[in-house]
Design goal:
Layout lengths: L1 E7 L9 E7 L5 E6 L5 H9 L6 E5 L6 E4 L15 H8 L18 H7 L3 E6 L5 E17 L6 E8 L6 E4 H5 L3 H20 L6 H10 L4 H4 L9 H12 L6 E5 L7 H13 L3 E5 L3 H7 L2 E6 L2 E6 L3 H7 L11 E3 L5 E3 L9 H17 L4 H6 L6
Parallel strand pairs: 3-11, 3-12, 5-10, 10-11
Antiparallel strand pairs: 1-2, 1-4, 6-7, 7-8, 8-9, 12-13, 14-15
Helix pairs in contact: 2-6
Length: 385
């Protein structure tokens, strides 16, 4: 997700709220966004996610990117669903294959002027096999919401219904449509967003059991996640519901606006560890300097509408390449729950992230089943063989 030379002015204001903003986030991002109240932090995030359109400049998001946004006032996500259990709420929210609570973004709503341009007749060039080019006049009736990838170019194509009706449907690249009207770009973004959401949903069925296990992973036991209404939960438990719901479709980028509200010390520690281990990008808007400074090597400082970027945007990627990330390979010993020192195996085989996660999952299952976990702990380098 990128913004370049972005300026934004609210309709009621004479002067811009944000000036000349250029930022980018990727799967390796760990960003702290800081600034005084009213500095424009939330406005900048809304521009980055597409909820607002810039007055000047460009905003771009990869067509396959799934982004989760946990708002500062997190409870507004669930305030209409207090009579549901957390499990029921998540199944309601994603039952149609996309996030039903996703904000209707201005960057996806076609205005009247854009619609008028989209309704205009266009000149369509047809290239025959012998190389001759002919031109026909036609109008786009609608896009069918279907998308495919061209095997040769790797670019996405979108199915178009034409007028007059005698012209058959065809698959067109975004470049053909967007050069005729900006409104088509918005319709294409809607299709891309739905396809990205479906891709996240296909990875696991939306069943009661799967949702229950997912909520347990974010620290909400089945007693509270499946068998108690949201209205009966504490503030910290409600925050876990919101975070768990936002993570269900497995986003690539997570934006947390004041995530430390209502969480106790133990939950904050778990959240910090989860952010470190997360394989996607994270942007944290927070006044908790201690929480952010330990997690984020890049900082966006907003002051009077202007942005100062500090730190290294590619720090995580470089850390992995130089084997300096906070992995077990760099830790010589650990302390278990009883206070015992556990020496890590020196020179253990380096595991890929995928291998490590699979082994950790198996270790968790074996511990729950009361099985011998010695071999698994050796493979993970937790104990000396």
């Amino acid at each position: 997700m990128k913004m370049k030379d972005v300026e934004f002015t609210y309709p009621v204001n004479d002067t811009p709220t944000l000036f000349n903003i250029t930022v980018q986030t990727s799967l390796s991002s760990r960003v702290a966004c800081v600034g005084r109240n009213g500095a424009g932090k939330s406005t900048m995030v809304k521009l980055l996610t597409g909820e607002l359109e810039p007055s000047k400049g460009d905003c771009w998001q990869h067509p396959g990117c799934r982004c989760a946004y946990v708002a500062q006032h997190a409870f507004h996500h669930i305030e209409q669903h207090l009579e549901k259990t957390a499990n029921e709420y998540i199944r309601w929210r994603y039952q149609y294959g996309e996030d039903r609570e996703a904000v209707v973004k201005k960057t996806m709503v076609v205005n009247d002027d854009e619609q008028a341009l989209m309704d205009k007749e266009m000149k369509y060039e047809i290239t025959a096999q012998n190389g001759n080019v002919t031109t026909s006049k036609r109008t786009v009736k609608r896009l069918t919401n279907l998308r495919r990838k061209d095997k040769k170019s790797g670019q996405f194509e979108y199915e178009v219904v034409w007028l007059p009706a005698s012209i058959p449907n065809s698959w067109e690249r975004a470049t053909l449509l967007t050069k005729h009207a900006k409104g088509f770009e918005k319709l294409i973004k809607v299709i891309d967003t739905k396809e990205a959401a479906k891709a996240g949903m296909y990875q696991r069925p939306l069943t009661k059991k799967n949702v229950e296990e997912h909520l347990i992973d974010v620290g909400l036991d089945a007693e509270f996640g499946t068998h108690n209404r949201i209205s009966a939960l504490s503030g910290g438990q409600k925050v876990k519901v919101v975070i768990g719901a936002s993570m269900w479709n497995q986003p690539h980028i997570v934006i947390l606006d004041e995530p430390t509200n209502y969480l106790d010390r133990e939950s904050l520690g778990a959240l910090a560890f989860a952010i470190q281990e997360f394989e996607g990008g994270v942007v944290i808007i927070s006044h908790n300097d201690e929480f952010c400074s330990k997690l984020c090597k890049e900082t966006w400082v907003l002051e009077l509408g202007r942005l100062d970027c500090k730190g290294d945007a590619e720090w995580m990627k470089k850390a992995e390449e130089s084997a300096q990330s906070n992995s077990m390979a760099n830790i010589e010993e650990m302390i278990d729950g009883a206070g015992n020192k556990i020496k890590l195996k020196a020179g253990a085989k380096s595991l890929s992230r995928k291998e490590k996660k699979a082994l950790e999952k198996e270790l968790k299952r074996a511990e729950a089943a009361g099985e011998d976990t010695y071999d698994l702990e050796v493979q993970l380098g937790i104990i000396v063989e």
